[in-house]
Known about the structure:
Blueprint: E1 18-22, E2 30-34, H1 35-57, H2 65-72, H3 78-113, H4 125-138, H5 146-164, H6 172-195, H7 199-210, H8 218-237, H9 239-245, H10 249-254, H11 259-281, H12 287-298, H13 306-326, H14 335-352
Antiparallel strand pairs: 1-2
Helix pairs in contact: 1-3, 1-13, 2-3, 3-8, 3-11, 3-12, 3-13, 4-5, 4-6, 4-7, 4-11, 5-6, 5-11, 8-11, 12-13, 13-14
Amino acid sequence: MFNGAMPAASPLRAPDGYWRLGDRDGTGLSLLIEKRSVGVNMLLAVALLLASVAYLSLGTTALDPRAVIQALAGQGDMMTVFMVQELRLPRLVAGCLTGGAFALAGILMQTLARNRLATPGIIGIDNGATAFAVASVVGMGVSLAPSAMALTGAVTAAVLTFGLATGSGTQGYRFIIAGIGVGAVFGAVTQLMLARVGIDTANAAYPWTVGSLNARSGGSVQLLGIGLAVGFVLAFGLARSLTILRFSEATARGLGVSVNARRFQILMLSVVLTALAVAVAGPVGMVGLIGPEIARALSTPRHVPVLAATLSGALVMVLADLLGRTMMAPIELPVGIITAIVGGPWLLWILMRPQRSRP
């Protein structure tokens, strides 16, 4: 006999592979968290932490990891404190920030173009930023700071690539070919500028052409830190749109995504992140390719792994710079050379097996 009482709502089960946080009966707000994503991000964070300790410990003068930890707190031998806090730690921070920015820009661009090769370096944005930054360093009639010039160059390269790819937008190989052409032109302009200045000026601008953390500027690093923090928050807010944009334009529009607006936002975010990273370290190639590939290999294909890509990029940059500092010590190899050596075979592998994963 019905007594007027409503049956109690049964708790909603979380889908397989997820945790549900918040209201479980379906009457309020709840949040689904993918278990594998949490595990992957924790694994990458621990790996980055261990790599950072190794980075601070190894070098021309090797330090005990326990002494490094004490030095970070300002304790222990004063020479050790100086080496850790004044010499190695600022460079480590620059490496983490630039690697994270390159990889975040890379996965955003790859998702936008639905192509694993569409990284800022390959489509010319790195070279555009580098050409303008070098113009500032060698004094080619400009007086803006390298960071401001790098941003101008990145925007210019992006506009040219997008304009030359008219008809295909950011999709397909026409966009990639246009970017390669734009990058080649800016690369030639950079070499021309270096050939027309004195040897001392060319040496000062050299790190901008290969990618090196030796040329970092304190102000540029701080600006990059702010930009990466803001950029990550914006990218995280665009996570749902990024996932949907991997499908066709008609599908994305049907699911309520403003495709043109989202593409513009993602493109501008990638350009700004790339420009800020180039302003610190120069055009460090392949990090925007390797970082996202590592993140996708570890993560599920349900979502775009924004955080995992950022952590992977930072890890790749730290390990590459550590290898460059120690492999032929006391001679130091620029980090851009190390990433090119590692990233070249990786790029060939992607070209030979493009069907293995999707952006």
